[in-house]
Design a protein that fits this description.
Layout lengths: L2 H21 L8 H13 L4 H27 L8 H16 L9 H17 L14 H26 L2
C-alpha cells in the first residue's frame, strides 16, 4: 500500500472514531473541529514526537492568550471605547503569541495561532461558550486545550497506524 493510501485509510478510520467520540460520548467535553485543527497542525509541524509537543504546547498557549484577550475585552481595564479597546487588547496578546517563536516548544507560530483563533472563534460565535474564568469545560480555553491535546494525539496515532499499514 502506498504511503498516501495508508495515511488516507488511517486518517479515515481514526477521523471517524474521533468524530464519533467528539459528537457522542465526549460531546461537550471536546470540539470535533478543534481536534481536527490540532491533527492538521501535528502533520504540518513534522508528524513526529517533536511535532506532537509543539502542537500541544502551541495550541494551548494560543488558547490561553486568547482567553487573556477575551478577559481584557470584557473587563476593559483601560476604559477604551469599542472598537479601539478590543483592538488594543488583541494586538497586545497577539504580540506575545508571536514573540515566543524562538522558544523551543512555542516555535511553531501557526500552532500558537490555531489555538488562539479556535478559542476566540468559539467564544465569540457561540452563545453558550461560557466564561474564560470558569473552571470547567464551559471555559472556551479549557475546551479548546483538551480538544487540541486529543486531536494531536490522534494525529500521532494516525501516523503510526499509516506506517504499519504501509509496510
Amino acid at each position: 500500500m502506498s504511503k498516501v493510501t495508508a495515511l488516507s485509510v488511517s486518517i479515515a478510520l481514526l477521523g471517524g472514531l474521533w468524530a464519533f467520540l467528539a459528537l457522542g460520548p465526549l460531546a461537550g467535553s471536546v470540539l470535533v473541529w478543534a481536534g481536527f485543527i490540532a491533527w492538521g497542525s501535528f502533520f504540518h509541524t513534522g508528524g513526529d514526537n517533536a511535532a506532537l509537543q509543539k502542537t500541544i504546547a502551541g495550541m494551548v498557549y494560543g488558547a490561553v492568550l486568547a482567553g487573556v484577550a477575551l478577559y481584557l475585552v470584557g473587563l476593559n481595564p483601560l476604559g477604551l471605547a469599542a472598537p479601539v479597546g478590543p483592538a488594543v487588547y488583541i494586538a497586545a496578546t497577539v504580540f506575545f503569541l508571536v514573540i515566543v517563536a524562538n522558544v523551543g516548544l512555542l516555535s511553531c507560530v501557526p500552532a500558537n495561532v490555531y489555538g488562539y483563533a479556535a478559542t476566540a472563534a468559539y467564544a465569540l460565535q457561540t452563545a453558550n461558550a461560557g466564561s474564560v474564568t470558569a473552571t470547567d469545560l464551559t471555559n472556551p480555553v479549557l475546551l479548546v486545550a483538551v480538544s487540541a491535546v486529543l486531536g494531536a494525539v490522534f494525529g500521532l496515532v494516525s501516523g503510526k497506524l499509516a506506517g504499519a499499514l504501509g509496510k
